[in-house]
């Protein structure tokens, strides 16, 4: 899988509807979940206590929803890249939904689609809907509309 490359920010202006190939699979290990818990201070037992979580509602530890969301930042440059920029800015999120759990050891990947593009005058703003899929699951585990701005070089 290779990211789709846009030669310059202006090339995005006609990209609405563009769908990107899925990223490679990324494993969400218990170690990664623990590191996220340590970084955020969220040590809820469903994330970090394998013994207790084994008899809990999910049969084992699960990743934090925000850990799943943070992987969108890993997936975006694997989905698309924009050349001839002086900088790219993560402008925010329009909508985020967590639709499934991510058990420790799961493999996730991202798919993307350009859903909106706007020329702000100083940058090209693009909204990419990133769908995070879990291997073997019928439904996505997360869908996030990300907003990025690309300032031409």
Characterise this structure.
The protein is an alpha+beta fold and 153 residues long. The protein has a single domain, classed as Roll (Thiol Ester Dehydrase, Chain A). The protein contains four helices and eight strands, in the order βββααααβββββ. The strands form two sheets. Strands 2, 3, 5, 6, 7 and 8 form a six-stranded antiparallel β-sheet that branches. A hairpin with a 7-residue loop joins strand 7 and strand 8. The mean pLDDT is 97.
Secondary structure layout plus pairing:
Blueprint: E1 4-6, E2 19-20, E3 26-28, H1 30-40, H2 45-48, H3 50-54, H4 65-79, E4 80-82, E5 85-98, E6 106-119, E7 124-134, E8 142-152
Parallel strand pairs: 1-4
Antiparallel strand pairs: 2-6, 3-6, 5-8, 6-7, 7-8
Short summary:
This protein has 153 residues and is an alpha+beta fold. It has helices at 30-40, 45-48, 50-54, 65-79; strands at 4-6, 19-20, 26-28, 80-82, 85-98, 106-119, 124-134, 142-152.
Low-confidence stretches: none
Using only CA atoms, what is the Rg?
Answer: 17 Å
Q: Classify the helix fraction into a percent range.
A: 10-25%
Helix-and-strand structural type: alpha+beta
CATH classification class: Alpha Beta
Strand content: 35-45%
What are the salient characteristics of this protein?
8 strands, 153 residues, alpha+beta, elongated, Thiol Ester Dehydrase, Chain A, 23% helix, 6-stranded antiparallel beta sheet, two-stranded parallel sheet
């Amino acid at each position: 899988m290779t990211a789709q490359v846009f030669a310059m920010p202006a090339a995005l202006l006609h990209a609405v509807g563009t769908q990107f190939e899925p990223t490679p699979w990324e494993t969400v290990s218990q170690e990664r979940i623990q590191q996220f818990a340590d970084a955020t201070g969220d040590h809820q037992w469903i994330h970090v206590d394998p013994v207790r979580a084994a008899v809990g509602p999910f049969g084992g530890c699960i990743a934090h929803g925000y850990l799943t969301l943070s992987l969108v930042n890993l997936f975006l440059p694997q989905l698309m890249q924009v050349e001839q920029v002086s900088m790219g800015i993560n402008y925010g999120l329009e909508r985020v939904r967590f639709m499934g759990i991510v058990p420790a050891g799961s493999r996730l990947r991202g798919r993307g689609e350009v859903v909106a593009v706007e020329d702000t005058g100083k940058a090209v703003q693009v909204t990419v809907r990133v769908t995070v899929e879990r291997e073997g699951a019928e439904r996505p585990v997360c869908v996030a509309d990300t907003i990025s701005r690309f300032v031409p070089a």
